[in-house]
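Task 17 of the worksheet. Students: predict the tertiary structure of the chain below and write it out as structure tokens. Keep your answer in the requested format; marks are given for formatting as well as content.
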Amino acid sequence: MDPGGSEQLAKEEDSDAANTAPAQTQGKGWNPGDRLQVAVVSFSHTIQHGYVAALGVAYPFVLADFHVSYAVLGVILGAAGVVGGLLQGLAGFVKKYSTKVLLGSQNIGMAISLLIAAISPGIFLFGAARIFGTLVSWPQHPVGSAHLTDRVPHRRGLVLAMHTTGGNLGTLLAPLVTSIIIAYYGWRPALVTMAALTALASLLTWTSVHSPDHVSKRQNRADKGQATKPAPAVKADGSLIEALKRREAKAVLSAGMISGAGRGLGVLAVYIPAYLRTGLHMSPLTIGVLVTMVSIGALAGPGIGGQLSDRYGRRPVLLTLYLFGAAALVGFVVVGSSPTVIGAMGFLVGVFSYSEQPIRQALFSDIMRGVDARKAFGAYFAISQSVGSVWIAALGIVITSVGFRAAFITMAASFIVAGTIIGIYAKEDSKLAHSASH
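Model answer:
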């Protein structure tokens, strides 16, 4: 990209830093407390992903006990995803509630959902508990993302990638713990255990996520030798509707809806364990190990991708992720049944398929410059997540009717189509930033 354009982008980002975050550093540094907020909000994401991943490992055993098909599960999860996605649009209308209150309440609600699911006598109450979990877990993505980009706007790619990596840590740890408990005690004790862990972990969110006022006071007490000059305040009063009409915004949202067929937290967290159990008839412990391999890749990918996107641009990194992610998804179901080979391919699925979301999210954030962050991310997740969640139901029907291989090929095809849209309609980052600031 043009060096002059990059320099201009940096200046614009520094100006936007004061949208909602107090005393934001001019330049590329970190303010006191920034790293703590990235860590704590990302840990809250760990809890949310752990919730979804634990259920993903339990689903094949739940369906076997309740004698229902993947089509039924897909409909339940698809409906829950659509409702939960639409609820994320509320993020811009609940500004009177702090990030601490929203994320803390969310995590307690998920613990209650797991407990109800664990004692369910049939699929009706189990499905209701799962839907309840979706209804209470909506704040994490829009509110958490807005909190972080308001704090560190000049490193959007990195902090959003760290947010995703925090979630992927839950995806890494929960399946292994859940699989071990299922192997020895069954799926119900596994969900009770995860409910208890979720409730305990949520205490950190309540005590460590700080509101802007708290941060401002803490920064004012900071050592003057480390204090940084605040950037001039710029109100984030741009029109959300007008920003969503931009061609680039439409392209990113369309890509998100289409690539939802291969999204990590939604589709893959459900259907990778299902394929290993129902398609390949593997044991719970083997499933836990292989899902962990996917999660290790998901830990490695986003951080590297986020830093590369900050340095070289969102678009080329995103296109690379779509291409290699599609290849990995196809490879996962055509390499055979060797656990070693599947584990290696699963690692690649984690690296590429789980990394596109934060880069696409950062690209959208670039486009929405000047718009209130909560409103922008609320719209982003309400549109892309709710429509993308329909894929869970659709793929459940494909699996029941045709098989797992057809479903994973469909996931790969969605990545190719999404990449094509980004390649044709999304401009380079410097141009996006320039158009978004006017």
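Marker's comment: The radius of gyration is 21 Å. Residues 1-27, 213-234, 429-438 have pLDDT under 50 and may be disordered.
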